Amino acid sequence: MLETTTERPARAREKIIDADVHPWVNGDIQGLKKYLSRDWWAHFDGRYTLPNHWLRPPLARASSNRIDAMTPSGGEPGSDPIFMRDEHLDKHNISHAVLSSIQAGKLAALPNASEAVALATAFNEYFLNEFVAVDPRYKLAMVVAAHDPQAAASEIRRIGDLRGVVAVYMPLLNIPMGQKHYYPIYEAAEQAGLPILIHPTGTEGGFPTAVAFAGGAPSTYIERHTNFPEIGMSAISSLVFEGVFYRFPRLKLLAAEFGFSWLPHLLWRMDQNWRQFRKEVPWVKEEPSATVLDHVRFTSQPIEEPEKPEYLHVILEMIHADRTLLFSTDYPHWDNDFPSHTLSGVSPELRRRIFFENAAELFNLD
Amino acid sequence: MPLHLVTELAGLENAKPQIFSVAGRSIGLIRSNGTVYAVRNVCPHKRAPVCRGTLKGTMLPSDPNTFVFGLENQVLQCPWHGWEFDLETGRTLCAGETKKLTLYPVTIKDDEVYVDL
Q1: Listing from the earlier edge strand, what are the strands of the sheet with A196-198?
Q2: Residue B33 pLDDT
């Protein structure tokens, strides 16, 4: 007998914000042609492929994109807003999906600042017109090229107040995140009321301009992927100890896909060192952990898989997940997590904070 | 509590902690800025001999990338982890930190230093 139901289970009706979704532009720079000036298009003159790190995932097509999420027309996963709407937003009851383009993250590998700035604008125009305009559930983390922080700030002032823009995605260069280089970007983001979003770009350790890994260049993808958290850790300690959150007191950071189980250690170590070496950074006037909990947020995917599930619950308490953690899927990447199988053991109150309210507060969404 | 005669005032060099055994306890006497401080020679952090540390000033809370030096010769820095204590209060300069030095009352009489344990 066919089982039918008129009411979906409560969990299926819960409001969900997905803080980490990745759209794609087929053909890289060729796909952006419509959004590049004739002069810039002529300038690229056949250089249409954005650089890939040599160490690729040992998966089909050596790609992070799931082959089962390819579009009906054979396009890259994430490239069709209608297909993604049906396959992802509708299927998982996503109220808002924050789009950050890892493809645009490859701009961190470009040695030419002007090219990176021009492409960042083209990417933003593409996603605003081809995704955000198609379905209001799509929200954009607009990309900036931090190579030229003044130009990046101008880009934030150009589109940062548009409805549908909810964050500034800043692919990291090999400059610690707390240093003055980035301050024009932080100033503009703060004025626009937008959080800065960082995310692994896939360029880490593979290009001279991209952020480096500690200890040297990994020789395998498994090392590269395992070591992503160290990028998040160094970004946060740099921001805190350089006093960025004192300079820009309304600035927020979303550290997406860097994990979170390492956070208790980082908080404790920062506080411990502050008690010892406060005089080196006298502008840090409160425990660094308090600053992190006030200003930095984290995404859930890839959800940690400890030896015992209860360990994860203790870590959630340690990191004040009711304030700091945002649910994310990472659709359409190979390691994506979905609501029905993520954090199913937490209390309804905590689940509501993680799956909706923390993100709603950070991105100013209803 | 009894007063214990510890040493002659003239024997205390300015801004240089000296350690004495007083009634079986290790006590540091620190003469600085016209005042003599008596400090239990145990750091409240990890039990280090704090009075073997350095008397100095420190950086006061300031705006980012600016330094304001102050509390000269009023801050005792532990030789182990570098915790800094304000001798006037026994507290660190880290807001919210509750661990503090044990300070004892000092009396100067006829150029002799007494500590009240």
Answers
A1: A16-21, A94-99, A138-143, A165-169, A196-198, A253-255, A296-299, A325-326
A2: 87
Contact A179/B at CB under 8 A: no
Question: Is pLDDT of B61 > 50?
Answer: yes
For A166-192, the pLDDT digits (tens) are: 999 999 999 999 999 999 999 999 999
Per-residue pLDDT of B4-19, as tens digits, reads 999 999 999 999 999 9
CB atoms within 10 A of CB A62: 11
Instruction: Identify all chain A residues contacting B60, using CB atoms and an 8 Å cutoff.
Output: 282
Query: Whole-prediction pTM value?
Result: 0.94
* CB pair distance less than 8 Å for A278 and B93: yes
Residue A4 resides in a domain: no
Q: How many CA atoms lie within 13 A of B76 on its CB side?
A: 35
* pLDDT at residue B1 tops 80: no
DSSP bridge partners of B112 = B8, B109
- DSSP strand pairing (B69-77 vs A196-198): unpaired
Beta-carbon count within 10 A of A2 CB: 3
Q: Which residues in chain B have their CB less than 8 angstroms from residue A247's CB? A: 64
Find out whether A120 and A144 touch, Cβ atoms under 8 Å.
Answer: yes
Query: B102: domain CATH number?
Result: 2.102.10.10
Tokens of A242: 């350089």
Domains in chain A: how many in total? 1
